[in-house]
Amino acid sequence: MIAAVPPINGSDLQDTNEAGRQYLQSFLDGQPLLAALITVCRLRLPERLADSPATADELASWCTSTLNAPDLNAEYLERILRVAHAYGWVQCDQDLAYSLTEAGTLLVPDAPNSMVPAVITRSFELWRQAAASMYDTVVTGTPVALDDCPTLYDWLDRQPPTVRDTFDAFMASRSSLIAPAIADLDLSGKRSLIDLGGGKGILLATLLRKHPNLLGFLVERGRVAQAARDYLAQDPDLAGRHQVLERDLFRDGIPPRFKPVYVLSSVLHNLGDDQAVTLLERIAKTMRDTGDAELWVAECVRPERPEPHPSMPLDLLMLTLTYGGKERTVEELARLLHYAGLSLLDVRPLPAGQSLLIARI
Ligand SMILES: C[S@@+](CC[C@H](N)C(=O)[O-])C[C@H]1O[C@@H](n2cnc3c(N)ncnc32)[C@H](O)[C@@H]1O
Known about the structure:
By secondary structure, this protein is α/β, with parallel strands linked by helices. Helices cover about 45% and strands about 15% of the residues. It has helices at about 15-40, 45-50, 55-65, 75-85, 115-120, 125-130, 135-140, 150-155, 160-185, 200-210, 220-235, 275-290, 310-320, 330-340, and strands at about 55, 90, 95-100, 190-195, 215-220, 240-245, 260-265, 295-300, 345-350, 355-360. It has a 7-stranded mixed β-sheet, sandwiched between helices. The protein has a 3-stranded antiparallel β-sheet with strand order 1-3-2. Strand 5, helix 11 and strand 6 (about 240-245) form a beta-alpha-beta unit. The model has no long low-confidence stretch (mean pLDDT about 95). S-adenosylmethionine binds near residues 153, 198 and 221.
């Protein structure tokens, strides 16, 4: 059913085999290349190269002292650099000095839209277990990597702050890719925005800055709620216009507000169908009580037909990291909304393969 390899016409079997072999080999190569990308970030090479170009020797001594790694192997480091050059993360000039490529600048931690949190998250034990246990997840029907942890977020709560902060930063970076496009939409008739499972508040802050008519509310679990409070407090222009509510979306009520837009960004894909409908029903109930309410759902929507798309690998992550979470098509999302008593009004494309679904009672 999935036709990602160019169709084979059978006229030159040997060439076709070679093309197919190379094609499949590229997936095998993905694993060591991802490990190299993670290593480049953990060695903080892009951070150093953002200052000025450096030779392999200079990078080795910088890593040795900065990472406090007296046994750092300079030859191994050079092999990592060779790969980084070959795949365009860094470039090496004639004087054998390395510098960042355009893509490499996204590997600098404080760069706008930095991908470092996304890369480092892939090195966490749960993500490695998730990839290693995909087979077991399929044959047992349970995400064995979670090891009876109720959710990915409970796993995160048990991790050291560096792990939790990196994941939150990863979510924030995904959010900042779509936030400006969502903020461009018409919100003139609305008075409040309630971001449910709103993470650190990147989307909420972006929308509040663009729409001074709005009051913002963010509902989150305890640890993330505090991170959101800290983040939102940094912008004096938002003072007095937002409130972070530490609540559980399934246990506590969905807060009613005046002329509200409820937002669910990358929340439904963590949930199986039954749980997703339960959550949507809870939101719909509050929307019915408040009137003139909309629900905006941002998700990495799966195309109707299987094709290479950001939703495909993300769906596999949901398969292995959640109980029943998945990337859904517009039709599948519309069906869940319908079961919850909501109607899909519109679908708007967003950057990074995401979409915004607008629903009403
Ligand atoms: C995939 S993240 C998305 C964060 C943010 N909406 C974004 O788009 O970047 C899902 C968020 O839902 C929050 N969450 C998960 N379960 C929750 C619950 N039961 N109650 C409140 N928040 C929850 C998590 O803490 C997490 O921040």
